């Protein structure tokens, strides 16, 4: 940004503050104008249907069978996009789109959980509620360290930094001081669970208060203490308030380190008169010393950039798109500066992530990304290459964490797809988050910069490896091992497929041989991940699992690996109904929901008409980190 441009922007925002108005996009209209005739989103929300009271939800066998051990999922209700991902210096916050009244999209609130390791989560009370102003759609969170927004009252010696998050055990001791410790926690959990079941909506869209006690989802709650280090400001959320007529951007600030979020009295802070204008992601752009918001004009397939010095007054800077795959709607943009691996130390590029729904190449929901430059006003892609974050179809609406240690780029995405997310076999809860993934940029074999993504610090969950010594598989052979019952597992493989002997058959065994990983059970179900030596491609096949059937629940996916190379490595994480495959050090990633009718109990490694050298194989059970409340 030039000095003159900064002066203009500063004058504009100062004038807005002086007049008490809110900056609007030059092409937008005021709050009194009619919204354009376009839908406010591309997915129906049956959960919004008015009802006298939500129906009690009873846990089913499928609810237990498909509940992941290390992935975050809601105790009850419906969860979709991750929101407000931020590390405050002590805790990782996960806010999320949440309907507490049933396992369907609708009545959107912000749920909230915190963690010290991104795997062990403690649920907290709802952070932002649906109100008469609308539902609380997707958004983000930032640390306004210097109180540039002016939202935070002056700190005093008596109140240097408000905000502490109590454990459920600590809160239970206050609620039930005369009871033994274990009984205190049980009573506290029962009280919260019953409060959720007793919530009523009465068709008004206004929700009752849930109370202020956190809900522990763990047998050993995360020890909590004052979260934010001393600072003049604190945590601020920027999100979309949505009605069928209008979508506007709101501010909310936290007086207690992120536990509660209070709407700014001057909301909305950005209103361009659209009902398809949503999902703000805000970052601090240090070179131009301002906040930058990326937000989508969804049905127009545009990502809009806005600038602000105080989070309250915003000026339109530029637009990006339509570009890449447009689908029906753009959603959930994210802008991050990402390390370029293996080149000049400290070199980075900007990556713009844009989610698409529906219309992804695999069907339904998917996320694409662009690599380029961002100067504080405009994003310019380096080239015309458009790529997807995933070759499966169950990773959507990713959001990167703000304020990560070491400026690492780490994200969590919604592990689901709008094509079938409200019809899955589990009934009392729906919605799962991916495990956290670290992202870097790496050049592929053609020289293009592409993202490489891998599990973030998953090694900390590994338990002693399951013995599985194997160095070679001869043609038409296999080896198998039993899987631990009920555990999440991680499988590491480094394999070279040898040339096929000329006297071995062609046919459905692959012209140059295949290496296949099969998870199976005695009932004949199987889940396979395989490598074809002739095409150097990887496949994922969930079509022989019988726990869920749906017209859009695509069975097979594939990804091209390194052309001409018969060596590959895989890192596979299998956890209840989730499968995440990281190939060739994360250059190709596949994410899929899986629904076997019966638990998968055996792992087999197989080759067809070519031998394979096993450079590395390791199979780890993973320590369980999630333990949800048993609803009565």
Automatic annotation (TrEMBL):
Q: Which InterPro entries match?
A: ConA-like_dom_sf, Glyco_hydro_32, Glyco_hydro_32_AS, Glyco_hydro_32_C, Glyco_hydro_32_N, Glyco_hydro_beta-prop_sf
- Which terms does the record give in the GO molecular function aspect? hydrolase activity
Residue intervals of the Glycosyl hydrolase family 32 C-terminal domain: 459-619
Q: Glycosyl hydrolase family 32 N-terminal domain location, by residue?
A: 71-443
Which UniProt key words apply to this protein? Answer: Glycosidase, Hydrolase, Signal
Stretches with biased composition (Basic and acidic residues): 209-220
Disordered: annotated segments: 25-56, 148-169, 196-227
Q: Where is the composition biased (Low complexity)?
A: 25-54
Matching PROSITE patterns, A to Z? GLYCOSYL_HYDROL_F32 (PS00609)
| Signal sequence interval, chain numbering | 1-25
The UniProt similarity line reads: Belongs to the glycosyl hydrolase 32 family.
The identity of this protein, by name, is Glycoside hydrolase family 32 protein
Provenance organism: Bombella pluederhausensis
């Amino acid at each position: 940004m030039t000095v003159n441009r900064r002066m203009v922007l500063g004058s504009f925002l100062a004038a807005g503050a002086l007049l008490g108005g809110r900056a609007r996009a030059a092409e937008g209209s005021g709050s009194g104008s009619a919204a354009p005739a376009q839908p406010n989103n591309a997915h129906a929300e049956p959960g919004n249907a008015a009802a006298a009271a939500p129906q009690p939800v009873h846990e089913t066998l499928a609810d237990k069978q498909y509940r992941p051990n290390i992935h975050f999922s809601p105790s009850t209700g419906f969860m979709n996009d991750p929101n407000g991902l931020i590390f405050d210096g002590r805790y990782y916050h996960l806010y999320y789109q949440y309907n507490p009244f049933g396992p369907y999209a609708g009545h959107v609130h912000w749920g909230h959980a915190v963690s010290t390791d991104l795997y062990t989560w403690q649920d907290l009370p709802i952070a932002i509620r649906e109100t008469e102003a609308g539902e609380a759609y997707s958004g983000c969170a930032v640390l306004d360290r210097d109180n540039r927004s002016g939202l935070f009252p002056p700190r005093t010696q008596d109140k240097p930094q408000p905000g502490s998050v109590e454990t459920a055990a600590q809160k239970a001791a206050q609620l039930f001081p005369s009871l033994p410790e274990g009984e205190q926690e049980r009573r506290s959990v029962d009280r919260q669970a019953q409060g959720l079941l007793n919530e009523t909506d009465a068709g008004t869209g206004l929700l009752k208060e849930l109370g202020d006690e956190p809900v522990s989802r763990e047998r050993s709650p995360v020890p909590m203490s004052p979260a934010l280090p001393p600072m003049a400001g604190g945590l601020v959320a920027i999100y979309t308030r949505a009605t069928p007529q209008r979508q506007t951007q709101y501010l909310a600030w936290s007086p207690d380190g992120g536990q509660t979020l209070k709407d700014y009295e001057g909301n909305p802070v950005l209103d361009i008169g659209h009902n398809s204008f949503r999902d703000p992601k805000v970052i601090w752009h240090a070179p131009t010393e301002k906040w930058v918001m990326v937000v989508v004009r969804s049905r127009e397939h545009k990502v809009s950039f806005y600038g602000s010095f105080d989070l309250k007054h915003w000026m339109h800077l530029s637009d990006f798109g339509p570009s890449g795959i447009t689908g029906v709607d753009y959603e959930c943009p994210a802008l991050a500066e990402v390390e370029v691996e293996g080149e000049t130390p400290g070199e980075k590029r900007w990556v713009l992530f844009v989610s698409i729904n529906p219309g992804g190449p695999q069907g339904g929901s998917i996320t694409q990304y662009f690599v380029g430059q961002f100067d504080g006003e405009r994003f310019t892609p380096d080239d015309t290459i458009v790529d997807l974050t995933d070759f499966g179809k169950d990773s959507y609406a990713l959001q990167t964490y703000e304020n990560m240690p070491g400026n690492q780029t780490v994200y969590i995405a919604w592990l689901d797809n709008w094509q079938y997310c409200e019809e899955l076999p589990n009934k009392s809860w729906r919605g799962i988050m991916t495990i956290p993934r670290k992202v870097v940029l790496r050049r592929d074999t053609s020289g293009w910069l592409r993202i490489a993504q891998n599990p973030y610090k998953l090694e900390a969950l590994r338990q002693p490896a399951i013995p599985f010594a194997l160095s070679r598989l001869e043609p038409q052979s296999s080896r198998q091992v039993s899987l631990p019952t009920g555990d999440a597992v991680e499988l590491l493989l480094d394999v070279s497929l040898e040339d096929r002997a000329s006297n071995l058959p062609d046919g459905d065994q692959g012209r140059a041989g295949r290496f296949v990983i099969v998870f199976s059970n005695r009932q004949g179900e199987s889940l396979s991940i395989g490598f074809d030596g002739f095409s150097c491609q990887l496949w994922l096949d969930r079509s022989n699992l019988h726990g869920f059937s749906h017209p859009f629940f695509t069975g097979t996916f594939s990804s091209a690996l390194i052309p001409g190379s018969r060596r590959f490595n895989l890192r596979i994480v299998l956890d209840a109904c989730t499968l995440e495959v990281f190939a060739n050090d994360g250059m190709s990633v596949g994410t899929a929901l899986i629904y076997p009718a019966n638990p998968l109990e055996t792992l087999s490694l197989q080759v067809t008409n070519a031998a394979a050298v096993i450079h590395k194989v390791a199979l780890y059970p993973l320590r369980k980190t999630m333990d949800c409340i048993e609803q009565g």
